[in-house]
Specification:
Chains A, B: It comes from Phyllobacterium brassicacearum. Chains A, B: Keywords: Methyltransferase, Transferase. Chains A, B: One of its GO terms (biological process) is RNA processing. Chains A, B: This is RNA methyltransferase. The structure is a homodimer. Chain A is an alpha/beta fold. Chain A has 2 domains: 112 residues, Ribosomal protein L30/S12 (60s Ribosomal Protein L30, Chain: A, 2-Layer Sandwich); 154 residues, 3-Layer(aba) Sandwich (Alpha/beta knot), CATH 3.40.1280. The first copy, chain A, contains 10 helices and 12 strands. A 7-stranded parallel sheet of chain A has the order 8-7-6-11-9-12-10, with helices on both faces. In chain A, α6 links the parallel β6 and β7. Chain A starts with 8 loop residues before the first helix and ends in a 6-residue tail after the last helix. Chains A and B meet through α6 and α10 of A and α6 and α10 of B.
């Protein structure tokens, strides 16, 4: 346990110690598990040191405040130095932290961030390079899956993630956490129908592969173009039949007696194969 | 909503209707989310129709009882016919079901199963065919990851999953659920140290690939043998250094700036590549 007097002076001066869990300045952090910054206006919650590092390294995102458990302070000196001086850093005891969060908040590091209006699907597609691998999501409404897909997109350097309007927001707390910060790193845009997104990609020269258990070509045989988009739907309903009929469909070859993969796992397998890293 | 009198006579005679959530016969189903059949003696809980189907199709597993929400009965006629006559089928209302489970139990289908003593690691290895792809787990203690790895093992027809003693039991409720039943299908054995398991596999002619971010050969370049074992450790600590030094290490090639995959996703990518289905 590190007590206050062991911290260097600048660190003690930098932080604002708060004892009362009901302090109004802590409102954005209250019961973070139950609510998710309802009416968020571009705000999000980042948890843990790894996610905080990804957050701080993205100049498009602004830090509104930090909430740090007192014994985590010494390990965050570098991160705090990189924050602007006018960003409040609240420092609390374990007891206060758990009372604010509403559950034992083991990580002890929370941050409220804000981002400007995200790009539109059109603008993001227009900004893509000539060689690009993008992920396109249809109806992905589970925050775990969304976060896992972003983690895979970052690991295999997908250019961006595009989502139709029925997919969930990648900046929900749980999605950011599961993504290990990738949701704060990989560019994304959400909106419109999946048909519109596919049309726009095809007009910009993208080869759109629809990943489906009923796909006709193995991902190991399909030949990606310089601009490739990988389209993924939900595990239950899958992609709309009309789309499957007009696109090249690809499949992950697997057992006939247990043809069931999690959608995020499927994204990882297909991204690994189509990424420039695979060399195949 | 289906009421009792719409069910065929045989179905009504087959089930035992229970109104009182405190009925002693329902004890194994009580608060299933909080406890997990502590002191289970080979018992497990299966949830949902898909998992129940996998469960019933495995002759090595015995059904002890079923607990079915009344409006799910008509859709389970086939499954109930395949159960022995002396297996109790308890049928309850939505209100009673939620009171028993301790939370809204949407699936409405629960079963308590039992399996005989699992095979030892030695016995399971001895029973493997000449062409085999096995998964070997070291220190996997997260039930979500365990379940996801089993799901992938089933999808790519791994011969079995072997686990050291520090890995968790795949028959925990959550693990079975996440595996979509694969934990009740894919043979597994757990016990001993990871070094012992690796020694036994090598003595039986297995090529053991240790999957690691620091691995020297890309999974897309590594050449699997007729008997291949894929060794996976935790995301944090990874595999013991002594093992990495004596085994062929393989890696999933990915971004240098975000070299982080979930261990279950990594298992899916490597299984897909090394399975007979990939054709590479």
């Amino acid at each position: 346990m590190t007590s206050a007097f062991e911290n260097p002076d600048w660190l003690e001066h930098r932080v604002t110690r708060i004892i009362n869990a009901d302090d109004e300045r802590l409102a954005p952090y209250r019961n973070v598990r139950e609510r998710d910054l309802v009416g968020r206006e571009g705000r999000f919650i980042a948890e843990g040191k790894v996610v905080l590092n990804v957050f701080l390294s993205n100049p498009a995102l602004a830090v509104e405040s930090l909430l740090i458990l007192e014994n985590r302070l010494p390990g965050l000196a570098g991160q705090l130095k990189s924050c602007r001086d006018d960003v409040p850093v609240y420092c609390v005891s374990r007891q206060t932290m758990d009372a604010i969060a509403g559950f034992p908040m083991h990580r002890g590091i929370l941050a409220v961030g804000r981002r400007n209006a995200p790009p539109t699907v059109d603008a993001l597609i227009d900004a893509l390079p000539n060689t690009a691998l993008t992920i396109v999501l249809c109806g992905i409404s589970n925050h775990d899956n969304m976060g896992s897909i972003f983690r895979n997109a970052a690991a295999f350097e997908a250019s961006c993630v595009l989502m139709d309007e029925t997919s969930c927001d990648p900046l929900y707390r749980k999605s950011i956490r599961v993504s290990v910060g990738a949701a704060l790193k990989v560019p994304f845009a959400r909106g419109g129908s999946i048909e519109d997104i596919v049309d726009k990609l095809q007009n910009r020269g993208f080869e759109v592969f629809a990943l489906s258990p009923s796909g006709t070509t193995s991902i190991y045989d399909a030949a990606p173009g310089p601009r490739t988009a990988l389209l993924l739907g939900t595990e239950g309903e899958g992609l709309p039949k009309s789309l499957l009929q007009k696109l090249q469909t690809v499949t992950i070859p697997m057992s006939k007696s247990f043809d069931s993969l999690n959608v995020a796992t499927a994204s990882g397998i297909a991204l690994s194969r189509f990424s420039r890293f695979s060399g195949i």
